[in-house]
Structure formats: C-alpha cells, structure tokens
Amino acid sequence: MTDERELLRETVAALVNKHASPEAVRAAMESERGYDESLWRLLCEQVGAAALLVPEEYGGAGGSLADAAVVLEELGKRLVPTPLLGTTLAEVALLAADEPDTETLEQLAEGAAIGAVVFDPDYVVNGDIADIVVSAADGKLTRWTEFSVEPVAAMDPTRRLSRIEPQSSTPLGADPGIADTAAILLAVEQIGAAARCLDLTVDYTKERVQFGRPIGSFQALKHRMADLYVAVQSARAVVDDAVAEPSATTAALARVAASEAFTAVAAEGIQLHGGIAITWEHDMQLYFKRAHGSSQLLGPPREHLRRLESQVL
C-alpha cells in the first residue's frame, strides 16, 4: 500500500472509530434514510470518499479503484451504513456513458446526490434514497430518469435494499462491465468485515472462561482460529489481485473467495461466542447477517463459479 493510501486508510479509520460505534451504527440503520447523514458529509468533505473515482475535470479526485477499495474496506470492518457503494458504481456507470453528464457527476462526487446501479431491479442497493439511478442490463447502460421505489425486506439491517421500476429512461451507451467492478468492491467490503469479525472472535475467546481458563487457550480452538486467519488472508490476496487487475475472471474469483471466507468466519464467530452472539445487543449477529446477505447480493458464489468454468475446462 502506498503512503497516500495508508494515510487515506488511517483518516477513514479515525472517522469510523469516532462516529461509528456499535450504538451509532444501530441508530443509523434504524434512521429514516438508513445511514448517518453527518458521517456521510464528513466522509465526503474530509476524505472525498464519493469523489475518488471521478476524474478531476468532473469535480473528482482522479483516483483509482484501489483508492475506493481502501475506504470501502474500512467501512466494511464496522458495518457502517453509507451510500458509498451504490454512489461509486453510479459514477463508474456515468463515466462510461457516450456523453458523461458533468453536472450529475459533480453532484455525486460532492455527496450532494446519491447514486444507485440496478443489476437486479428487485434488490437495489441505495434504491430507496437514490437520486441518480442507472441500469446495467443486456450489455447496455440506461439512466432511469423517473422510477418508482418499493422497500424490500432484507436479512442484513445495515444494508437496505429496494425494488425499483422504471417509468422513463434515457440510453447512456454500452456497459463496459460495471457488474465486475461492483463484484470487486463488494468483495473488498466483505474482506474488511471478515477480518473485523475474526478479531472480535479472537478477543472474545481470550475473555470467555471455561474449566478455569480462557477458551482461546485450548489447542483445538487455536487451530480453528488459525484456519480462519488463513482463509481470510488467502481471500484477501485474491481480492487484492482483482483490485490491481480488474477483469471478469478476477472479479468472479474475488467474490467466491471473499464470500466463502466471510461466511466461514461469521459462522465460527457465532459458535465461539455462544448464546450472546444471537442477542440484539451483540455485533456478531450483525456480521452473520451481513455475511449471508452480501454473499447473495449481485449473484451468489455459485453463479460466479459458473463464470469461471470456461477457465478450467
């Protein structure tokens, strides 16, 4: 990681530590818009989170996918509800248009407008709060200028989903593969959450006492947590490769690896925490729900595995 990205990571981490405590995350996800609007402003004004992938001529920072990944990973660690994923993808889609809309891109980069990209109209991230909606389907990008929105019950309360139906639309151009970018960024978020989930589990096993000693001192549990650490780090390597060299293949690999690692860590976290893990007050149940919700978002792992069949046959 470059010095600039490390500074970016530290800045985001500091904001998250200060403004996204477990209590704040719960308040945000239960709020009318589903996220902390004051934290969103700080991320946009102090970090430029929504401007990272937008070129400077459109009011952005002219950064790369790796820059956006740094921010999303830090937010993923604490399950912070923000409109960043959907907004970033909307920017990528608008930049791919035959004629990029400068005014709209500037609004998105400032955080003054919220974006969403529709891959499946029944499950749209940011759907209920989006000002700018772009559909990616059948190799084409289309901006939905008017649309209706219906909330969808989601397993993960930290990420709201909505059903959107277009009422009027405008063609933008060919789809360069926005779904692959979405898969990579979601995988980055999953890795951040998986790493944090594992940290919480390891810390708890050092505190929970059975038979007069912390359960983390038992050899069998040490082995299980070591296996989880290897799973997370192996998946991180795959995701890092996808961020560095994005393609349909690396995106599919990243989603499979990140989904499997996060699901495994969350399941073990629930078991090792015991009954407290499924109480509303404890964060572990939120990580468990995020793990399973994210694994199905933008296509479950089996769909990404099918995309990889041609690479091994």
From TrEMBL:
- Domain Acyl-CoA dehydrogenase/oxidase N-terminal as annotated: residue spans: 2-109
Q: Where is the Acyl-CoA dehydrogenase/oxidase C-terminal domain?
A: 184-297
GO terms (molecular function) for this protein are: acyl-CoA dehydrogenase activity; flavin adenine dinucleotide binding
The superkingdom of the source organism is Bacteria
Pfam families assigned to the protein according to its UniProt record, in alphabetical order: Acyl-CoA_dh_1, Acyl-CoA_dh_N
Q: Which SUPFAM superfamilies match?
A: Acyl-CoA dehydrogenase C-terminal domain-like, Acyl-CoA dehydrogenase NM domain-like
Swiss-Prot/TrEMBL keywords: FAD, Flavoprotein, Oxidoreductase
Chain coiled-coil ranges: none
Name the cofactor(s): FAD
Q: Which family does it belong to?
A: Belongs to the acyl-CoA dehydrogenase family.
Q: What is this protein called?
A: Acyl-CoA dehydrogenase
Source organism (scientific name): Mycobacterium kyorinense
Q: What is the lineage of its organism?
A: Bacteria, Bacillati, Actinomycetota, Actinomycetes, Mycobacteriales
